[in-house]
Write a structure and sequence with these properties.
mainly alpha; coiled coil; nucleus
Length: about 240
């Protein structure tokens, strides 16, 4: 075995091989906590299910797989740390310079095709969403029409039932017909003018509002507010003149 290994071994520098033989890196605290959580989780699962055969943590295949993955991770971590130190000792840079510009592996024509393909895909998705919205709106419109039709049919059926009761003498009058007519007129007016009557022109001045606040005018010469002094008639003025003479 050793002879065969020596036979196909390449006698080249380490910079060409980049092989590492080292111990695993120390176990990180967060990894140790995660391992403890996994062990506790498996222990709780065994305790809560009598059908599962209990496995010791050292022999549990699930935990062994987790430990094996951790071992690979620690081994690679230690190899990277030691390998970077060796590369720096040999004067090999391990980071790309800030002003380094690499040539694109794909041509500009190929990237244009990719860009067109992505744009076409986005447009297709936008059209699909728009079509879905239109379908939903149509469904909603049909649903509202169906509800209105069912409501009208129910009202018509109720009116016909009341008419039948009136014919049989169970109802004494036809007030329900007037109520339905009044309700229909009320709905039409509400639709035209809004609830609570007409609002247009409500803030315009009229005869009462132009007189002052509360429809009262200011008094003169100490008279009561709101009292208007009237001019005496001609006969009364003549009598007052004769008295003064």
């Amino acid at each position: 075995m050793n002879a065969k290994c020596t036979e196909f071994r390449l006698n080249i520098d380490w910079i060409e091989r980049l092989d590492m033989i080292n111990e695993p890196a120390p176990l990180a605290p967060e990894m140790a906590m995660q391992l403890e959580k996994e062990e506790q989780k498996r222990a709780n699962m065994f305790a809560g299910n009598a059908k599962l055969k209990y496995e010791e943590p050292s022999k549990d295949p699930v935990l062994n797989d987790f430990k094996r993955e951790m071992q690979f991770h620690r081994q690679a971590q230690a190899a990277v740390v030691e390998g970077i130190q060796k590369l720096h000792a040999l004067g090999v840079t391990t980071k790309r310079p800030d002003d380094y510009f690499a040539e694109m592996a794909k041509t500009d024509e190929h990237m244009q095709k990719v860009r067109k393909h992505l744009l076409a895909k986005q447009e297709g998705q936008a059209k699909s969403e728009k079509v879905k919205q239109i379908r939903e709106q149509r469904k909603m419109g049909k649903k509202m029409q169906q509800q209105a039709r069912l409501r009208k049919e129910a009202e018509k059926k109720e009116t016909m039932d009341k008419l039948k009761k009136f014919r049989k003498g169970k109802l004494k009058n036809l007030d329900f017909l007037e109520d339905s007519k009044t309700e229909t007129k009320r709905k039409a007016k509400n639709k035209k003018f809004g609830f609570g009557g007409r609002k247009k022109g409500k803030k315009r001045n009229d005869r009462m509002s132009s007189m002052g606040i509360g429809g009262k005018s200011k008094g003169k010469m100490g008279n009561r507010p709101g009292k208007v002094t009237k001019r005496p008639g001609k006969a009364q003025r003549n009598r007052s003149k004769s008295r003064n003479k």
